[in-house]
User: What shape does this take?
Amino acid sequence: MLRLHVGVVAFALIGLGAGTITTVTTGAAAATTAPVVPTLTQVSAAHHAGYDELVFQFRGGIPAKYSAGYVSQVIGDASGRPVPVVGSALLQVRFAPAAGHNEKGVVTYGALRRAYALPQLIQVVNSGDFESVLSFGVGLAQKAPVTMHAQPTLSRVVLDVRVPFKTVSVRDYFLNAHRFATGTAPYTEAVYRPVIPPATAFGAMQRLFAGPTQAEMARGLRFTASGATGFKSLGIRDGVARVQLTGTISSGGSTFTIANEIMPTLKQFPSVRWVKIYDRFGHTERPSGHSDSIPLSLEP
Assistant: This one.
């Protein structure tokens, strides 16, 4: 593994247009001292007037290079395989040299996959931590201008994403693991998410698949995917919402499945009275009529 010690000498503010990838180099290699690789210690986010802010906090200085750009899919560093990230627009963020683990291989910044209840930021997912290159996929509600800059005195790199739209609040229903374990109904708990109208049902489904935030997970909330990797289509007509899932779905013998989360999430909308859930092959038990329906694979 090649590691370079980097002396930070300059920083720049970068404006990233749609579809661009911009790299900032903040220093030059120095071979006279022992190698030091900045280590990521925290990832946090917050909303401010007009933009969402994503902060990468480091120990050991700022990475010499950092970049962010829109991509059609997030690709895992080293593996070369697509990394699932929920969002209508995707950013890939890279730092080098940088690490997200210590000498024992333990992750130093917390969850590898995390959801946010912010207007733009939906999900942040680690996409690589290999040979001093650390990368993430960032799922957004909508493509918009971004800027990325370092704050050397605070040892962090900040990604700002514009929020050029209005949102409305909807509910997503997740499994409450504590209630389920004790047999205390209801087993779902509603949380609120900002989505972009008029596609509020789509936005609610998107946020559902992103999962609970870290604070919600600490309260025992979980997303039960039942093997689903996402949803391929969503249509609402004549009071019936039809949603087709992707992935190999199965109840695994459980009485609680992804259907228990999708149905109340969609039925919150006045236009939805019944929900029909289809597997990846387009199969559901009762495809016709005014009734709820699930695929056979989601039966206990």
User: Anything to note?
Assistant: The CA atoms of residues 146 and 161 lie 4 Å apart. Confidence is low (pLDDT under 50) at residues 1-21.
